[in-house]
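quick q for whoever's on today - can somebody do inverse folding on this one?? i tried earlier but teh output was garbage lol. C-alpha cells:
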C-alpha cells in the first residue's frame, strides 16, 4: 500500500473507532491504537503498525470535529494499552505513540497535548510487574535507551 492508501484506510478506521467509542464501545479505539485485527495500518504484512498515520488521522478528525473529545479517547486508550502491554513489541509500539505525540506537541503539529507522564507511568508499572518483561535483558536495554531519549529531549523519565 502506498502512503495515500494507508492514510485513507486510517481515516476510515479512526472514524469508525470514534463512532463506536461515542456509543460506549471503547474497545475498537484501543484495537486501532494497538493495530490489532483488521485495525492495523501496514505498508505490507511484515511491517509494524504505522502509529504515525493513525496519529495524523486522529489529529485530522479532531480538527474537523472540535466538539468531539478525541484527545480524551486517545489518552484513555493509550493509557489502557500501556497498562496491558505483554511483550517488547507492544512496549515499543506504545512508546512510539508517546515519542510521536511529544515530538508533535514540541513542533506544534498536535492540535492537543496529552498527559504523557501518566501514560509513561502506566507503561513503567506494567513492565515492572510483569516478570517476562522486567527480567528481559532486551527490554532492560530498551528501557535505558528510551529513558535517555525521554530525559534529554522531553524531560520525562521511564526509569
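ok took a stab at it. sequence:
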Amino acid at each position: 500500500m502506498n502512503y495515500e492508501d494507508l492514510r485513507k484506510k486510517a481515516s476510515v478506521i479512526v472514524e469508525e473507532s470514534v463512532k463506536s467509542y461515542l456509543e460506549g464501545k471503547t474497545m475498537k479505539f484501543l484495537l486501532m491504537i494497538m493495530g490489532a485485527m483488521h485495525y492495523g495500518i501496514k505498508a505490507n504484512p511484515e511491517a509494524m503498525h504505522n502509529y504515525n498515520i493513525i496519529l495524523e488521522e486522529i489529529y485530522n478528525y479532531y480538527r474537523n470535529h472540535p466538539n468531539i473529545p478525541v484527545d480524551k479517547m486517545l489518552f484513555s486508550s493509550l493509557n489502557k494499552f500501556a497498562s496491558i502491554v505483554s511483550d517488547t513489541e507492544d512496549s515499543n509500539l506504545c512508546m512510539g505513540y508517546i515519542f510521536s505525540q511529544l515530538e508533535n506537541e514540541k513542533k506544534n503539529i498536535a492540535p492537543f497535548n496529552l498527559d504523557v507522564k501518566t501514560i509513561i507511568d502506566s507503561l513503567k508499572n506494567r513492565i515492572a510487574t510483569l516478570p517476562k518483561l522486567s527480567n528481559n535483558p532486551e527490554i532492560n536495554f530498551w528501557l535505558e535507551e528510551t529513558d535517555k531519549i525521554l530525559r534529554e529531549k522531553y524531560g520525562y523519565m521511564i526509569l
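fwiw The chain is about 70% helix and 0% strand. also Residues 3-22 form the longest helix (20 residues). so keep that in mind when u check it
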